[in-house]
Amino acid sequence: MLLAGFAAAAEETVEGDPLYPILPHIGELVVGIIFAIIVYVVVAKKVVPRLETMYEERRAAIEGNVEKAERAQAEAAAALEEYKAQLAEARTEANRIREEARQQGAAIVVELREQAQAESDRITTAARQQIEAERTQATAQLRQEVGRLATDLASRIVGESLHDSARQSGVVDRFLADLERTEAQGVSSR
Amino acid sequence: MSLPLLAAADEGGFTSPSTDIFWQPLIGSGAFAITRPAIVFALTAVLVIVLLLAGTKRLAIVPGKRQMAVEAVYGFVRNTLARDIIGSKDFRRFIPLLVTFFTVILVNNLWGVIPPIQYPTMSRIAFPLALTIMLYLTYHFVGIKRKGIGRYLSGLVPPGLPKPIVPLVWVLEFASVVLIQPVTITLRLFGNMFAGHLILVLFITGGEYMLFHGGFGLKLLSVPTFGMAFVLTLFELFVEFLQAYVYTMLAATFIASALADEH
Description:
heterodimer; A: 4 helices; B: mainly alpha; two-stranded antiparallel ribbon; 71% helix
């Protein structure tokens, strides 16, 4: 087409073309103005408003996102703070409970010890009392027995029953009481 | 390939391309002929509109591939050119104009290296001029509206100048704003595309002539010539981007200085 243009250029005389290249061809100038204005109108009415609206929306969207992100961050920070506070609280609570348990444990040990002591005291006392009672009983029985044996012995020696008279006269009892008295005196005099 | 250019060369050697190559009327002739670049420009306008509308059809906050491409171009013009030069207070009103300039110029420039068009539309001065007329009306209009005609004109002189040179500076600044700025911005875009295209055509047709019509030595030499054409095509691609950027940046600068409180 370029070459075809050359052909046309060569065939035509330069008629209609301005004498110098820097002078405008009127027809081309008219076409130029008309179509430049058409482009301008379309750009001004359609293209620029569309793009500017989109820029505005994009700006708003970016700002919105930034705001949202900032809000989320603040929320996260607040939650973290809260969790930390709760954790600290829980730790204090745990310490408190542990301390209490320790104190309670100590108290229980002391109490149990006291109870055991009391029980052992009680058992010892009871045993002692029982022993005392058995001793008393044994003493009484023994006294009876000794009296009877002594009397039997004496009767056999004497040849007659002394049981009734011995009981009547309380000889045996007196003898034993004397014996006990001398024994007691012997102990105290020593 | 019965090229008149080369036919002529057959008879009398190689004829380097002249400015005639830019004149490509398709329908009619004369001042209102419908030329090939006019049709390319019109179709480019349609293409730009379609691309921009398709790229912004369902805009998502998280962009897809197509939206990303449109956003890259739009964001570049909006932030790097409009906002940074005009200032964050006023720049929004001028985004459409600057986006129009950048996209229209860029696509039209790229045709310079894209087959089958291979013709930078902006090498016809009418098209840069059409854009500059829009820019010219815009920046004078907003300047006068902002400050009133008196303050707009008196504000051309920077404050703090010694009294005697104020009139001289004013004349210079006035000439600059009214005539020099629009002419230079137009010529810069036009001249870059015009010259670049001429150079590409020179290397390509020259290489072609050497290959097909030259002797053995010339046939060999056509290889570096085509190599040069290739390198210059890449360079041209760079210039095409650069000029779209420069035009849009200067447009933003003119608007900014028309709005500025002090010169």
